[in-house]
Structure formats: C-alpha cells, structure tokens
Amino acid sequence: MKNNPPINAPTGAFQYDYSNIAIKLVDALAGAGKTYNACKWAVERASAGQKVMIVQPSIKLLQQTEADLKPMIKASGQHVPLRRFDTDALDGQSVTKSVMTFLKDYPQGRSVIAMMTHQAFDLLPYFHRAQDWVVIYDELPVVDMDLTMRVPRSHNMFMGYVQPVDQSDDYCKLIARENNGLRKFTRGDDDVYQPLQSFAHKMLDEHWNVYAIKLNYHDVVIGNDLEKKTKLSLFAILKPTKFKDFRETVIMGACAMESVMYRLWSSWGVRFEEHSEIMAGLQYHQHNNGNRLNVHYFSDEAWSKNLRDKTMEESDTTVMDGMLSELMVRLKDQEFLWVANNDVEDNVFADCEGATRLSNISHGLNSYQHIDHVAFLSALNRTPAHFKFLQAQGINAGELRDALVHQTTYQSVMRCSLRNPNANHPVNVYVTDMITAEWLGNIFPGSAVSCFAPEGFAFPEQKQRGRPAQHENAAERQKAYRQRLKMEQTALKNVNAQLTVLADLYDTKGEIYDVSAVDGLINQLHEAWQTTYAKKKDNHLVSSAVFNPALSEKTNRGLKNVENTWGIWLDNDDPNGISWQDFKKVFAHFKMVGCNSHSGNGRYRVFLPTTTVMTTEVHQIVIDHIFLTLTDHGYEHHGFDLSKRHAASLFYLPCQAKGGGSFFDICDGDLLDPLAVLNVVELPDTPTLKVSIGKAASDQSIQTSIDYYRAVGAGTGQRNKAFFDLGYILLKKGCSLSTIEEALEMADYDDSRRAKGQIASVIKSLESGRYGEVRG
Fold first, then answer.
1. DSSP E strand boundaries for 64-183
2. Bridge partner residues of 568 (DSSP)
3. How far is CA 126 from the centre of its chain?
4. Range of lowest pLDDT (28-37, 149-158, 195-204, 283-292)
5. Which of 766, 742, 572, 530 lies closest to 650, judged by CA?
6. Could you give the CA distance from residue 161 to residue 423 in angstroms, rounded to a whole number?
7. Per-residue pLDDT at 715
8. Same structural domain, 128 and 271
9. In sequence order, what are the residues at sequence separation of 6 or more whose Cβ sits closer than 8 angstroms to the Cβ of residue 179?
10. Where are the beta strands (DSSP E) in 28-78?
11. Which H/E stretch holds residue 271?
C-alpha cells in the first residue's frame, strides 16, 4: 500500500488526505463502563453472524474481558466461539503465527469473538480478509514513537538498508531499500539486534512512516565529524490506514479528543463519528464525585526530569527527595498507589507498608478500587527533538501535555476508589505540578486543589510561585482591564454597522447587510414581522455578528470567526419572567423594538441598536450589564435566554405568533452606547469571556447525536437526561456553545424543551466549565 500523496503540501508540510477512512469513537470517562458495553455490543454483532476482534493493552485486561464475555454469550443463547491470543492462552506459542493461521483458516460466514493485545495487533504483517472483521480497539493506540538511538559507529550495520527521501525542509522520510535486509533485525533471536527490532518493524510496516532530522541524519550517517556522531534522532508516525480495510473500526478511550491520535488523524481528514450504541449505555458522562477528591501538587513549575533531579538551594538533596519526604509523612500509615518513571527505584517507599507501585500504563485495572490515595510522580515529557517533530505535525505544547501527561495521570488516578460509584471516602491524589492538578480539578467538578510543598521549601532557581501579578491590587487590575476594553472599542468607532442574515441553521455563510440607517432596519424588521410561518425553522435568522471564515480553521461562523457585532438581541422564553411592558419601563431611555416570538404566549424578543459596533468581549459585557440592571430592579429571574449572551448567537427574525397575541412595539430613545456601559459597569479583575473552539465535529456526527436523542421514546423518563447528554456529547466532540445551541434547537423539533427553559439550562451548565473546558 502506497502512502497517500500530500494535498497541496509544500516542502515543510505533513499533510495527507485520509477522508476515505471512518472510525467510530467512544470518548468515555474512565469507569463509565465503555469496555463492558463494548462487550455486550460485540456479543450482539457476533450473534448476528459477524466476526469481532477485541484489542486491549494487556493480557490481564484480556483475561478480565474474557471473564465478562462468557456469561454474556451464555445469556445470548447463541453459539459464539471465543478465542484469546496471548502468551498465557497459547502456552508460549508464537502469538503472531497463531493469529495469522487463525485468520487464514477460520471459515468465512461463521461468527467469532477473538481477542489479542495491542502489541500483537501492531506486529501482524497483515490482517487476512480484514473486510470480514469488526475491530474494537480498547484504549487509544500509540501513534507516535521516538526511535532515537545512540549509534555513532554501528549505524552502518543497518542504515545501508535505508534510503532517505525529502519530506520537508527539516525532515526526511526513511524507506527500506531492501526488505530482506531489515527483516533479520525483527526476528528477536540475536541479542545484538534487539535494540533495532522496533525500528525494523516500523520500517517494514506499510502503516508506519519513519522520519529523521535531515541535518542529524547527515551528521551521523554520512558525515565524518566524530563529535557530531552521537544520537540518531528517528521518529515514527502510525497512519490511519491501519484501520482502513475493516468492516468497522471502533476506538475507545478516555479524553480521546485530546489525544495525539485524534488531533493528528482528524487533521488528515479521518472522519471520527460517535459510536452511539456503546455511548448510550454508559453509566455517566461526567464525574459526579468530585466533592470526594482533594488534588495536591508539589511544584508551581511544570514537572520534568531536569527539575526533579535538581538539588535544592543550600542542600545536597534533590527536589524529588524533598517531595518523597513530604509524601512519606502524609502517606506512611495509608494504603496508596504510586507511579513514577522507570529510573525511580522500587524501594523509595520501603518504609510505607501500604505502598503499591503501578506502571505508567494501567488502563482498565479494577483491582484497586478500595484504595483512597494515589501519588503520581512521573515526568513524561518528550525530548526536545521529538517535541519539535510533533510541532511540525501541528501539535502544540498544551495539546501534547494534555495528550501524554494529563491523560496518563488521569488513568492512574482512576485505578483508586474514584472508580467505585458506591464509595464515599475522601480521596487524596498527589501530583507533581500545578497545571496537572488544575487539569484534574476540571475533570472532577467540585474537587479541591492545593499545594503540598512544605512552607518555605527551597526550590532551585524557582520562578515566582503562582501566577505573576501584573498589577498591585484588584483595583489596578480592573482599571487596566477597563482601559484595554475601551481602547479596543474606540478603535471600532468608524467601522460600518452590519449584521448577518442566514437562510437556516445549516447556513454557514449568510448575507451581510449594512444597517447604518437604524430606522430603515426597524422598518424592515416590521415587514418581516408580518409574515406567518407554520414552523419556526422555516424563518430566516439574524446575528449581530459579522463572520469571517478565515479567522478559524475549524468553523465558518463560530465565536472565533466574529470580526465585530452591532446591536443587542435578547430572547425571553419564560412567560413567568419579566414582561415586555415591564422591560421597556426599566430601559425607557433606550431606542428599542419588542416583538413576539414564533410561539407567542408571553414569549418575546428584544432588539436594541447600538451607537457603534462592538468587540465580542464588549458585546457580552453589555448583555450582562442589562441582566444585572434587571436584577437590581428586582427581576432576578427575568426569563431571558442566558445561552445567547455570546456574540455568535442566532435569532429568528420577527414573524407572526402561531398562537395569536402578536405585537411589534417600537420605543423611541437614545441608542445604547457600549462605551457608556464600560464607564459604569463593574468589571472582574480579569476577562471572563470564554471562547468556544468552533464546530470540530462533522455535520454528520452532529446529526447522529441528534438522531439518537430523538430516538429516545416519550414516556420513558429518559428524555430529560438524553437532552442534556446531547449537549454534553457535542461539547466533548469539540463543538462551540453556539453550535451546541443550534443542535439542541434542531433536536427540539416541537419547541417543548425551549419552552421549559431546558436549552438555556443545558448551555448554562456547559458554559460553567463543570463538564469540560470550553476552549479557545
């Protein structure tokens, strides 16, 4: 199989088109039951005559899953063969040969559930009749590897079988000159060849690409300067073609959308779609036991082996020694789990009888749910050369830390009693640095984060602890923030007032209209109001924003695409909230329009033209000021839709109310002045606007989630939960709040959820950050 050619890729780019590959994704939290649900689904598929291959990280997990599958198969009443391929099950026979023989000889048309480890799957030279098989890959595949070797003299032993081919200005791809020459390094029967096994396997595997740094490759392999003949930096990337030919591929893992796999492959066009059947049976979509968790961190600085091994000021002991000493005081009489790099000796907690060491890879282990304490001490940073290589793939530092350090920490933490929904004891987790602690705190809403370094601990060359203060006090910070907002707002004073009209919720471009003549716009709104629509969704929509698709690679009209806004639109969906008559009394000095919504019955919309266009930040501040003013007038429960505070919000144009009670009321007064609001509004110390990341999920993926919600029957008692789950799942897919709101509106075909305020409630909950970051 040949590599797909780069798509419009100049020298320096790693761009490929794999849009013909679709993968079903189960992005589920640890302990939510994804593996158990996948087993039930596998039995259903096998009972229907299909072949299913379950691939898991370890033999221990295979044994655990096999034990779960046997009673499920028995309960199905079907004859479903179950085969496990690992060194324990095969009594030392070659796993690769056994699997290859099985795949070749197993009868076509007969069902089976087979099982193997990640390692065995990776080493298969090919998968016979892959089109007959459904593959369930449990836990995320490793898609990047550092194969760097110290070979100043021995490189000639194997590099003669390799040819470099230009990939970019800085990197070359290595291809095999002669497969037979490299194959001898893969056999494992010669100790001298052992260090070359992984490199040779990757070079001979059509699904892996191996790269070298051009300059480093020349210095080590070709050059004559012995001082430069040190490490040969080699990196491997797994292509999604590994899963291309299967009948169906399911990949499961916690925080999957933060992984290197997801970020890399989705940038190459792989279509990730939610596996709705497995997702539907999960026990939870967010951790509800955060109130039990206390996260303690040692260092404000990001953890690394370099920091770990530094000696403390005026001392011969290292930072690691200091951290271990504090942990031994805290955990001496406790039963706890601990994780550290392989170069940390097993006996560092020798005086703690309750210490149990785990490896850095501990996915799926369920045997420690009685333990309430965890210490994660590993430094898992890539080497600078490896990190730079991944940057060339478009993955930044924060994404890489989330994908490696944070996810590995999370998996280790979830081996303890947090995995047990019936446990109620407090849990203490000790991590190395503040950024990891805060990430964990976000995963577990309600948890507490604190530092456990002893008071006065002398960190070497320590940067200022905590976030650096830019201003002396809160008043100074607020003053600087206000000045910045006013400067940005003043810069827009000569920008023409415009708004965007869209044909429907699927319209990603819309048409931009000049609205400098306010009275002319109000007349047009009045004309639109005279139209009757059988369904709300037949109407056009309007947005205060001017969208620029070039501002974001992920979306055309998300919050990141907003250049500026003009005018304020508000939706009041609660007949028991403030009435239109009372609203216009509170803001009697403003020019504005009030009109019924499509459903009528006390629900209405407000439009307030502004003196100038606004930034997205000022737009939200103005709306929040309006709501605060209502609260000050006694209307704390005013009924306005809080989910539409952001600048990318969409509103249906005025029309006749389907149930009668239509009105269109024009109030004379002054235009709302954003600068005047900035002069009087009480601002926070720092910006509070949360920017959403845009629609990362495909339209098809979003529609699949909507269809799943609609399939939940009325009267089952599950529709309220399913409606929230729809919003939550779209958030985990990377959708912006505006995209989620649109999807909720599409799912709410009869407007019943909006009428009950549930759309606003879901958006408010997601916006809080309790269920995952709304990232910029």
1. 82-85, 112-117, 133-138, 144-146, 149-150, 162-166, 171-176
2. 608
3. 32
4. 149-158
5. 742
6. 57
7. 60
8. yes
9. 204
10. 51-56
11. strand 271-274
**Amino acid present at 718:** Q
Considering its fold, how many domains does the chain have in total? 5
Q: Which H/E stretch holds residue 594?
A: strand 592-596
Structure tokens at 735: 């959708």
For residue 16, give both structure tokens: 């490929």
Q: What is the Cα–Cα distance from 391 to 481, expressed in whole angstroms?
A: 33
Question: How far apart are alpha carbons 595 and 600 in whole angstroms?
Answer: 9
215 and 103 housed in the same domain: no
Among the listed residues 457, 466, 399, the one whose alpha carbon sits nearest the alpha carbon of residue 433:
466
DSSP 497: P
In whole angstroms, give the CA distance from residue 355 to residue 353: 6
Q: Give the Cα separation of 396 and 549 in Å (integer).
A: 22
Residue 212 structural domain: 149-232
434: left (phi over 0), alpha (psi -120 to 50) or beta: alpha
The C-alpha atoms of residue 144 and residue 123 are separated, in whole angstroms, by 16
459 in the Ramachandran plot: left (φ > 0), alpha (ψ -120 to 50) or beta? beta
Residue 319 shares a structural domain with residue 272 = no
- Residue 733's identity, in one-letter code, is K
Q: Does one domain contain both 208 and 99?
A: no
DSSP 3-state of 361: coil
Q: Where are the alpha helices (DSSP H) in 184-228?
A: 197-204, 214-217
| Contacts of 610 by beta carbon, 8 Å cutoff, 6+ apart | 497, 566, 567, 568, 622, 671, 672, 673, 674
Same domain, 164 and 135: no
Statement to judge: residues 27 and 64 lie in one domain: yes
Question: d(Cα 336, Cα 355) in Å, to the nearest integer?
Answer: 5
CA-CA distance, 177 to 163, in Å (whole number)? 6
What mean pLDDT is predicted for residues 332-360? 92
Tokens of 663: 């009105």
Residues 203 and 250 in one domain: no
**DSSP-assigned letters across all residues of 238-269:** E-GGGGTTSSEEEEEETTGGGSHHHHHHHHTT
Q: Using alpha carbons, list the distances in angstroms from residue 55 to 58, 103, 115, 583, 585.
A: 9, 15, 6, 60, 66
Contact between 59 and 117 under an 8 Å Cβ cutoff? The reply is yes
Q: Assign 24 to helix, strand or coil.
A: strand
Cα separation, 39 vs 281, in Å, equals 12
**Residue recorded with tokens 């939290």:** 29
> Could you give the CA distance from residue 41 to residue 37 in angstroms, rounded to a whole number?
6
Token pair 């480093």 is at which residue?
216
- Pairwise CA distance, residues 128 & 53, whole Å: 12
| Average pLDDT over all residues of the chain | 85
- Same domain membership, residue 175 and residue 81: no
- The DSSP 8-state label assigned to residue 532 in this structure reads -
Separation CA 259–CA 264 (nearest Å): 8
Going by pLDDT thresholds of 50, 70 and 90, the confidence category of residue 688 is: very low
Give the pLDDT band of residue 179 (cuts 50, 70, 90).
low
